[in-house]
Amino acid sequence: MRAGSRIIAPEGFLNLVQGTVYHFLVSDGRRNRVRLVEFKDNGKSISTHLVQLSRIYFEEAVENGWLLEDGEANSSPPWLIPIEGVAIDCLEDRRVSTKESYEQKVNKRFAAISSLIARRDEILGSDDPDGLINAHAKAQRPHQNAARIRLWFYSYVVFGQTKWSLMPPLHRIGAWNREGPGLTKKLGRPSRKGKRHGYRCDVVMQQHILKGFLTYKSPHKTQNKIYSEILTKEFGCVSIKQRNSNVEYKHPKGEPFPSFAQFRYWIAKMMTAKDLRIALKGTHGARAKSGSEGSFADNLINVNQRIEFDGYNISEKLSGLTEGSAVDSFCVVRAVCALSGMILGIGFSEGKENMAAYRMAIYSMACDKVKLCEQYGVEISAQEWPSAGLSGDMVLDRGPAAYYEVEPEINWLKSVELTPVFSGQSKASIEASHPRKKKTLGQPSYVHSRLDFVKMAKREILQVLKDNKISDAQLRMDEEMILAGVKPTPHNIYSYWSMRGRDSSIGVPFDVAVREFLDVRPAAIRKDGVYFYGRKYRSHALVDTGVFDLVAQKGVIKTSVYVLVMCVRHIWIEVKGILYELDYVRTARTLQGTIDISLRELQDIDKMRRDSAADLRDERPAHEQLFDDRFKQNTGEDWDAGERILGRPSKGGAALRDTADYNRFRGVTK
Description:
By secondary structure, the chain is an alpha+beta fold. It contains 21 helices and 20 strands. The strands form 5 sheets. A 6-stranded antiparallel beta barrel has the order 15-16-17-20-19-18. A 5-stranded antiparallel beta sheet has the order 4-3-2-1-5. A hairpin with a 2-residue loop joins strand 19 (570-575) and strand 20. Helix 7 (203-216) packs across helix 8 (223-234). The model is unreliable at 406-412 (pLDDT under 50).
């Protein structure tokens, strides 16, 4: 037991008061006595009371539980515990008046007891320590208060023997009850409108302010608007124009009401800062102005353990396929690993964000990335995008993704989380990974890109590789990764954890990914290929199945195929339960730039082809009649002039003479 240890007597012991806290001072082994000191603090003043016990009785009481040590020893006086651990410089900065610093105050007190501290053993070993301290106080010039000197001396000896235990409890100044029933005067500094202007904000007025604020608060209202509604609807005030043209609130019956300053002060005092921010700015506005509550990656141990999805719209206007005019771009949906920040999947949707783009992003996650990029006509190496597989924990954006149907047979998906509306911080990893565009002031403008849909999709795929390679991910780095020399990029962080088996990805066969996540569209199988919106597709594997021979016997077979909406370089067809990948059949005249087009562009081309064929059908009779008329004008006879006669042509003399004349005309002689 050391100096400062707290001692209590649960049932009382000798001259100790039951339940009172005493601080162990010193044990004198030569005179067999123990001294405890009680610090009495009534809120206004602090005094000391020295207690002396027999060492034998004290040790027996401790062993038998008559005296108990109450926790650890205090390192500072009880009245200084509220500011324990606070830097002195910080306390100095809080003060309004600095005529005398804390350092000066403490040094002055220490100087008053310095000679007593030098004689500490003599004083504590005497029969009457309080008498020696009192005599010292009277011997000082000017005289010192004996009770104050005793308090300083015992505080210094008991609480760590540091001069900072002599700090005055100035932090308790002003902590008096301002809500007493006898107080009717308005508190605080006088108003600039006059010493007696305004009313005292008592408990009743405070409750009216709080009630009115909770009733009329709204993130769409200013504090002035809320204050006005509280005064008019809660307090019954009216707005009156004075003779000096000033306008102010008055109560018809002269009853008290708060000023705007009182309203703001008491609302801030009666509500927590967080609740007040939510009331004035709304939930999302308050979160935007609040500190970070930590990273989602702090609770993750594997890559692919949690995946966040979100979409953004490309700002550039694209070039149309036929006329090259400026057309609206598309939405890009990306999937990001919450631990590494690496982009694991990408999907596209023409126009607004839709569920097809989310399914395409999930499909791209499941695929081998070399094969995926080849489907868009982009060649990459396996090391550039080293991820394949799905995650069991997906965070989807509320909106189109809210209609994602989780079928019972999907056994890889453990949970789907939908974020709150307009809550970017709920999926901060993906929100922070979106490409940013520099905003400029001035006249509105737009960028007319020379890229079409597919070329822009290729650019976005390369943008994924770029972001994975150069994004700053220092906040995701652990010390072991720094020591291992890992560069702070999402690609390197993902590779580091994945190579160590810290990978929660779930492998999905390619055919399952195609059937589950790609769009299904109608097609037709003819004897020379599979026709999809007028474009022909074939593959050697499909030819070997003999399906085209069967079609040649039975005609056209209607079927359906799986397609990537943004690029129709390949399609997939299921024949007898087996999935086949078909390639676009190119001729020697096919331009390289027309190989990769989007589904919408293919549909536009097919519509133009059908419209052209329909126009030709409509114009054919008119064209035939036009040439019939030209023939009649030239010959005087109809195109089909003549008559149909039954039987065979005659072989008589007239026929023979006409044949001979015709032969002479051709120069034929027999």
